[in-house]
Amino acid sequence: MIPVLHLVMLAVILGVSFITIFLMVFERDLLKMIVLSAAQSTFYAIVLYILLVPDVVLAYIAVAVGIYTALLMFAVKKTERFEEA
Amino acid sequence: MRVTGLIAAISILIVLFALAYGLVVLGISGPPAPVKLRLLGEKYLYYMINPATKYFTAESPEGVSAILWDYRGLDTLYETMVLFGAIIGAILVYREYLYSEPRKTGKIYGLSHIVRTVSKIIIWLTIIIAVAFGFTGQITPGGGFIGGAAFAVAPVLLVLVYTLGYARRLGLTHRRALLLRASFLLLLLLVIVTPLIAGGYIFQNQAKPGSAFSFPGRFIDSTPLGGSIFFLNLFELFAVAGAFTVAFILLGVIASLKEGE
Questions:
Q1: Owning domain of residue B228
Q2: Cβ pair A1:B35 closer than 8 A
Q3: What is the pTM of this model?
Q4: Residue B30 domain flag
Q5: Rounded CA gap, B150 and B146, in Å?
Q6: To the nearest whole angstrom, how far is the Cα of A26 from the nearest Cα of chain B?
Q7: Is A81 in the B-facing interface, judged by CB distances under 8 Å?
């Protein structure tokens, strides 16, 4: 079984990642939104690490924090930085 | 807006909590993930590095790499081919952008001096970690695709922080990235067909009934080498890195053309 400490850590990290998701949805500055998305991916990577899947963690960090963030930055560069109300 | 946001947050939290409680504690969708290993998992763990069962061993203590490149090798080959096709398709659609003349600017415009200095360190660290993933894919988590994806972060950072013109001046062009990809894919194919040439089966790693051919299972100091897994991981690393680099150079070219320069 998963130890209680790990369950508590999971709850805290998922709670923080929920806060970043919430801020991300209501963010008007798209560049800040990308940074928040990367932060949320980092928290998910920690969750996956606690759940004992190191292979998925490595792929997740490279794709979700590195490549996905850069892809969104290129997309924002081609459009506008601020979302209209 | 602030009140509606708060209400939305609280209601989402309640729904999430109810779902999690129902799934994990009440078990409405059947039992949660099994605590014991499944039979298939036990078999993989038993056989993947076991000299006693010499027809089944993959000589790799890393289960995921053993499954990806030995037991289910053809699946991974098709996965590589899908990425290859996707990159070829992207190049085909945007070929006129790629072969347009690069603009010649004397000065390098990029992000601020602080960002450039920090990136200089991070780019090298990324490359070292990515290559380490590829080299140790048969003993620790990591492997070819993950290493290649991590490796591709370095050229992306270079293009984002120092601009595409500077990357071109350093010699990072789409032609070279494509050459890297194609040559390492060819090497990958060579590893796959080598047993066939030696009289064995395609994608063979260790000795099988009817064919004594096997890739070196151990390094000189008896570190597990995983046979063909080591070579496949290494070649996949550079092939994937080349593929992602081409894709991001393409994106950078299109983005810089948008600025009207």
A1: 62-258
A2: yes
A3: 0.82
A4: no
A5: 6
A6: 8
A7: no
> Measured between alpha carbons, how far apart are the two ends of chain A, in Å?
48
If one counts every other C-beta atom within 10 angstroms of the C-beta of residue B86, the result is 12
Q: Are B248 and B88 contacting, i.e. CB atoms less than 8 angstroms apart?
A: no
Q: Is there a contact between B38 and B117 (Cβ–Cβ < 8 Å)? A: no
**Residue B51 belongs to a domain:** no
Classify residue B19: in a domain, yes or no: no
Q: How far apart are CA B256 and CA B252, in angstroms?
A: 6
Residue partners of A40: CB distance under 8 A and separation at least 6: A17, A20, A21, A24
Residue B94, CA distances (Å) to A67, B100, B246, B252 in order: 20, 10, 11, 12
* B251 interaction partners in chain A (CB closer than 8 Å): 71, 74
ipTM of the complex: 0.79
The string of pLDDT tens digits covering residues B208-256 is 888 888 888 888 888 888 888 999 999 999 999 999 999 888 887 877 7
B31 within some domain: no
So where are chain A's domains? 4-78
| Per-window interface: B 117-156 vs A, CB < 8 A | 133, 141-143, 145-146, 149-150, 152-153, 156
Residue at B48: amino acid letter: M
Compute the nearest-CA separation of B196 from chain A (Å).
Answer: 31
Is A70 in Cβ contact with B153 (below 8 Å)? yes
Give the H or E element holding residue B205. none
Q: Over the stretch B76-106, which tens digit does the pLDDT of each residue have?
A: 999 999 988 998 898 888 887 777 665 655 5
Q: Are B148 and A66 in contact (CB under 8 A)?
A: no
What number is the average pLDDT over the span A45-58? Answer: 87
